[in-house]
Structure formats: structure tokens, C-alpha cells
């Protein structure tokens, strides 16, 4: 699996616009899985999972990493194309899909999740430094490996539209 994938093509944004595809990407970030395994873990129909994996694969977001012969067929193991995916611009539909998928994950959390939204007035310099620190925290976090609980981390820093300095 590659370390980084920059999202930018219309096909990739379209592929990311469906909540089940977002959930598939989250699941495949942990370890490779088959359509059947994903269907069970995400409580979805195999046909739906197969269709959405095809869309993600055609967009270059997942790939087949292993095949195995099983009772009269071939089983494919899918994996996310990169550990981390980032984008510098995003259509509003993509942002909505990401937050929808995250909201669904948070609603299923095993423990009380930490979700904080705070609005601050920041200078451009402080906002840039905060973005750098947040990026460093996420990039520096190390996976503890198999046997440990999986935690989702979502970080966002954005300037609100229409709010002008001194306003």
C-alpha cells in the first residue's frame, strides 16, 4: 500500500460521493478483505459491496492485492490504494459524503466519542501554524498494530465564508 494518494480527478470525487464507498475505504484502511467479509462487517449486501468496490477500483482508490482459489471460484482481497488520502480542493458533495460516513461511524462508536466544534477568530499566521500542528499530530500517530482497538481521527480547520475581519 502506498503512503499517500492525492485525490483530484472527477472520477475519484464521484467515487467518493457515496457513503457506502466511504465506509468501504475506512474498512479497507485496516486490512485487505473480500467482498463477503466487507458485506458482513458493514452489514451490506454482497451485490452492493461488489458494485461499489468496482467504482472505487476504477477510480484507483482500491486494488486487488491477493486472489485465492475457493470452491469453484476465485476470491479477491481488496485493499485501499494508499494509507492516507488527501485533497486540496473538494466539491461540496464529497465533503458531505465524508461527513455522512464519519457521522455513521461515530454513531456506532463502542465508547463515547470526542467530537468538538469550536469557532475561533485567528490571524492568518496562527491558522497556518495550527494547520501545521494538526497535520503533524495526525501524520506522527503510529498504528499500534493488530489486536488494538481501531480509532477514527478526523481533523478539519477551515475559514468560515462570509465572516470578515472586524465583522
Automatic annotation (TrEMBL):
Family matches, as Gene3D superfamilies: Winged helix-like DNA-binding domain superfamily/Winged helix DNA-binding domain (1.10.10.10)
Residue span, HTH arsR-type domain: 1-99
InterPro entries: ArsR-like_HTH, HTH_ArsR_DNA-bd_dom, Metal_resp_trans_reg, WH-like_DNA-bd_sf, WH_DNA-bd_sf
Superkingdom field: Bacteria
Keywords: DNA-binding, Transcription, Transcription regulation
Alphabetical list of PROSITE patterns matching this protein: HTH_ARSR_2
Coiled coil regions, renumbered to chain: none
UniProt name for this protein: HTH arsR-type domain-containing protein
Native source organism of the sequence: Saccharothrix mutabilis subsp. mutabilis
Classification of source organism: Bacteria, Bacillati, Actinomycetota, Actinomycetes, Pseudonocardiales
Amino acid at each position: 500500500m502506498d503512503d499517500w494518494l492525492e485525490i483530484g480527478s472527477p472520477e475519484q470525487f464521484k467515487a467518493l460521493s457515496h457513503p457506502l464507498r466511504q465506509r468501504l475505504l475506512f474498512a479497507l484502511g485496516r486490512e485487505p478483505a473480500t467482498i463477503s467479509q466487507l458485506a458482513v462487517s458493514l452489514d451490506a449486501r454482497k451485490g452492493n459491496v461488489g458494485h461499489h468496490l468496482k467504482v472505487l477500483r476504477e477510480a484507483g482508490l482500491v486494488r486487488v492485492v491477493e486472489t485465492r482459489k475457493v470452491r469453484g471460484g476465485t476470491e479477491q482481497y481488496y485493499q485501499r490504494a494508499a494509507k492516507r488520502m488527501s485533497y486540496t480542493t473538494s466539491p461540496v458533495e464529497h465533503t458531505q459524503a465524508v461527513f455522512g460516513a464519519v457521522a455513521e461511524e461515530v454513531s456506532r462508536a463502542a465508547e463515547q466519542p470526542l467530537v468538538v466544534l469550536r469557532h475561533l477568530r485567528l490571524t492568518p499566521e496562527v491558522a497556518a501554524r495550527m494547520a501545521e500542528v494538526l497535520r503533524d499530530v495526525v501524520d506522527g500517530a503510529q498504528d499500534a498494530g493488530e489486536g488494538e482497538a481501531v480509532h477514527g481521527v478526523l481533523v478539519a480547520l477551515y475559514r468560515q465564508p462570509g465572516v470578515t475581519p472586524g465583522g
